[in-house]
TrEMBL record:
Pfam families: Lactamase_B (PF00753). SUPFAM superfamilies: Metallo-hydrolase/oxidoreductase. The lineage of its organism: Bacteria, Bacillati, Bacillota, Bacilli, Bacillales. Gene3D superfamilies: Ribonuclease Z/Hydroxyacylglutathione hydrolase-like. Residues 15-232 form the Metallo-beta-lactamase domain. This is Metallo-beta-lactamase domain-containing protein. It comes from Tumebacillus flagellatus.
Length: 322
């Protein structure tokens, strides 16, 4: 049995859906809602409607480390003793390791320098990233879930590694029942974003999130399922068409990014503000969108980067016409 429980969030995205899986001997909550009193009340109420108390929970699965999905985990573990199950990449994040957080800060600063953010823009962007940490608790991953694993206590659900929206993102697939638990991998009413993330280890190359996302979208598109339970909004049906549309929208945006560079914008931040002139309050998001597409164009050989004393200048690679 699967119960959907909508939970309010203080974020522009609106409600998040968490899911209660009732197995024969196992009660599992998929995602938690943010760390707010309203969210906890809604969760307790939703669990109650399914005849369950927080104390009864055996397991908490986290689809990815974003505050609306993991915020209440510490509180719920304290109250229930539930085990936490997530991708191994979730552990260093949710443990709130100070070294990891310092490395993240450094990473963003260096990146913002390359993209040409001024001091005020850097400060605004970092503040917007840190703001979300007010809505998460600390926890540890007890059981790592990787591609192909079965969800303990609910063996019909198979784990899929679906990076892109987040590097630690997993989805759950019930092949027999033709159902998916999607987290934020696919959302019906909005396109999910491939958010920038630092590399797993300091000094490594950062992951190309949009490209990972496209690949993971295609993987999920190829699977046979009828209904997808998403982290936000209504259930996803007709996923093959929906994912085709999402992929096409990205291609169109890449085309616009290329045009913007061709029109003379060479610095990441200028390109970002040309594409998204009215979204300054969501700076990390619009930077992620822009750089995701820039990465992709560079990878495809349509753009190249010149390092101008730590500032990256994007240039169109003109094809040789013979
Ligand atoms: Zn998310």
């Amino acid at each position: 049995m699967l119960h959907k429980i909508p939970i309010p969030t203080p974020f522009p995205v609106g409600d998040i859906n968490v899911y209660l899986l009732k197995g024969r001997d196992c009660l599992t909550l998929v995602d938690t809602g943010p760390l707010t009193r309203d969210a906890l009340e809604a969760l307790e109420h939703g669990l109650g409607a399914a005849g369950v108390r927080v104390e009864d929970l055996d397991q908490i699965v986290l689809t990815h480390y974003h505050c609306d999905h993991v915020g209440l985990v510490e509180h719920l573990v304290e109250k229930s003793g539930a085990k936490v199950l997530a991708h191994p990449y979730t552990e260093p994040l949710i443990a709130r390791d100070p070294d990891v957080e310092a490395a993240r800060g450094e990473f963003y600063l260096q990146l913002y320098r390359g993209l040409g953010l001024n001091e005020e823009q850097k400060e605004t962007a970092l503040k917007q990233i840190l703001y979300f940490l007010d809505y998460v608790g600390t926890a540890h991953v007890d059981t790592a879930l990787q591609e192909g694993d079965r969800l303990p206590g609910h063996e019909e659900w198979e784990v899929l590694y679906t990076p892109g929206h987040a590097l630690d993102h997993i989805s759950l697939f019930d092949r027999q029942g033709r159902r998916m638990l999607l987290g934020d991998h696919v959302i019906k009413h909005i396109s999910s974003n491939a958010l920038l993330e630092p590399p797993l280890r300091r000094g490594e190359e950062r992951p190309r999130m949009l490209m990972l996302y496209r690949e993971a979208l295609r993987n999920v598109q190829a699977l046979d399922w009828e209904i997808g339970y998403a982290g936000h909004g209504e259930e996803v049906t007709g996923h093959k068409e929906l994912i085709t549309k999402r992929l096409r929208d990205m291609e169109r945006r890449a085309e616009r990014v290329l045009e913007t560079v061709r029109a003379g914008k060479s610095v990441g931040m200028d390109i970002t503000l040309t594409l998204f002139p009215r979204h300054f309050e969501q700076l990390p998001l619009i930077i992620s969108e822009t750089i995701g597409h820039l990465d992709w164009l560079v990878h495809d050989g349509k753009l190249k980067i010149e390092d101008d004393g730590g500032l990256w200048r994007y240039e169109v690679v003109e094809e040789c016409l013979k």
